[in-house]
Design brief:
Length: 82
């Protein structure tokens, strides 16, 4: 990373990655024949206090779901409803 405060961003990315492993959110597997992998990206956000000072650095790893193909990568659409 070649950005301001890169040491802080590296720490939060590592913390998020470790959290995913500890919580067993996902595992590494071999890709099935004829299937394609869905990409991912990191989302970075700086949380600030009401006075504008930095509160903390947040990051989240998200899947690029828009690359999925219906009936190839998924069959059902599930929406959380209250």
């Amino acid at each position: 990373m070649n950005i301001p405060n890169d040491d802080k961003w590296i720490k939060v990315v590592q913390d998020e990655y470790n959290s995913l492993l500890i919580n067993k959110t996902w595992t590494f597997t071999k890709l099935l024949e004829g299937k394609h992998a869905i990409g991912h990206k990191w989302i970075f956000h700086i949380k600030t206090k009401s006075n504008g000072s930095i509160c903390c650095y947040k990051t989240c790893l998200v899947a690029k779901g828009y690359t999925q193909i219906f009936c190839v990568d998924f069959e059902n659409i599930l929406l959380p409803m209250v």
